[in-house]
Design brief:
- The structure is a single chain.
- It contains 12 helices and 12 strands.
- It has about 375 residues and is of the alpha/beta class.
- It has a domain of about 250 residues: SGNH hydrolase (Rossmann fold, 3-Layer(aba) Sandwich).
- It starts with a helix and ends in an 8-residue tail after the last helix.
């Protein structure tokens, strides 16, 4: 019996060695990685050509491939020349994976500024899919501050394009998800995805044969899974009256959200003390705001959840927090209430919040027009 146990133990050790040795040699466990690798869902060292195919995509995107590039530090649109720098931070509506490098709103805003400023400005896209203020806080500490120090860059401004993903922090008791605050299982997945030779191959097989998103001729074809349309956006519109007081549940959510948003602004001021902080409160295409009235253009289900009203509550909280920080710290944080100042046509969105090329251009022109008020001319 004792001999049998030794044989089993020997076989286990030998099998482990057979697996671990090539994993150690071929994997990326010992290679130096950018700070972006510490951020869940952040992409780096990517140069993709994406073609969006299928009935849910054809109506929004042209047939030509979309170029999506992220450099070795995880940034999109970073130009390695001495220029004034602006960093944009947000979720997937800033990352804009399905919008070509040349037409992200960051790039459109940059072009607008450079047509109107003597000294050129480079806008660097630091958007990460799924992130809200909690993820932005993590990214400022663990990615942007360290990367910019290494690159010897002091950005003239940091622009937070914020709002759409904030509702998860406001409506969920625990914003415990893969993008903001990953679970131990998700952390393990992220670690293996970054380092493991075998795990990367398994994920590639899953991508190609299970998710059915094949790579053909260097282009990734997205086959139109899921609803990507405004088909559910039907009249009649619902009027939501803003309550005079928050519900008990929303009061707790407001307290928790205020703590997270305050931490985000404070850590940004701490890590970038000479950088102007600008918050752009996103336009929410399914909502319209008229004084104390909120018009919900989405389904009845969204209306019952007070979807648009809660966004209004979030933006109001942001206003109060910024006003208080500016008062106490003699700060000059700027809030731009895009959500109530502009209307972008429905053709500017391919789903509930993500831009088509048309919408991205409109967002970029608006943001460029606002930023020029706060970017000081140097000549």
């Amino acid at each position: 019996m004792q001999k049998f146990k030794k044989i089993i133990l020997f076989n286990l050790l030998f099998s482990s060695l057979i697996i671990l040795l090539p994993e150690f040699i071929l994997g990326s466990w010992l290679s130096k990685k950018p700070y972006a690798s510490k951020v869940p869902s952040a992409k780096y060292n990517q140069k993709l050509s994406i073609v969006l195919k299928g009935p849910n995509w054809d109506r929004f995107f042209a047939a030509e491939a979309t170029k999506y590039t992220r450099d070795e530090n995880g940034y999109r649109g970073y130009e390695k020349v001495p220029q004034r720098k602006i960093l944009t931070i947000g979720g997937s509506t800033t990352d804009q994976m399905y919008i070509d490098d040349a037409f992200t709103w960051s790039e459109i805003a940059e072009n607008f500024l450079n047509k109107n400023l003597v000294e050129k400005v480079d806008i660097i896209n630091g958007g990460v899919d799924g992130q809200s203020s909690l993820g932005h806080y993590f990214s400022i500490k663990n990615w942007h501050a360290k990367s910019f120090k290494e690159l010897d860059i002091i950005p003239e401004a940091i622009v937070f394009y914020i709002g759409f993903n904030e509702i998860h922090l406001f409506t969920e008791k625990k914003a415990f998800n893969a993008f903001n605050n990953p679970s131990p299982i998700r952390k393990l997945h992220n670690k293996l995805k970054e380092n493991s030779f075998f795990y990367k191959r398994i994920m590639k097989i899953k991508w190609s044969y299970i998710d059915k998103m094949p790579t053909l001729n260097g282009a990734t074809y997205i086959l139109g899974r899921g609803s990507r349309s405004w088909n559910y956006l039907n009249p009649p519109e619902t009027i939501e009256e803003l309550p005079r007081e928050l519900t008990p549940g929303d009061k707790i959510a407001a307290k928790n959200y205020s703590s997270i948003f305050t931490k985000l602004l404070k850590v940004t001021e701490e890590k970038f003390p000479s950088t102007k902080i600008i918050i752009i409160q996103q336009f929410i295409p399914g909502c319209r705001y008229q004084g104390n009235r909120t018009i919900n253009r989405l389904s009845e289900d969204y209306s019952l959840k007070r979807y648009c009203t809660r966004y209004k509550n979030i933006f109001s909280l942001q206003d109060k927090i910024v006003k208080e920080i500016n008062r106490l710290n003699n700060s000059n944080i700027v809030i731009i209430p895009m959500y109530k100042e502009v209307v972008i046509l429905d053709k500017g969105f391919y789903d509930i919040g993500h831009n088509t090329k048309f919408g991205s251009i409109e967002v970029g022109k608006y943001i460029g027009g606002e930023l020029i008020k706060y970017i000081e001319p140097t000549n």
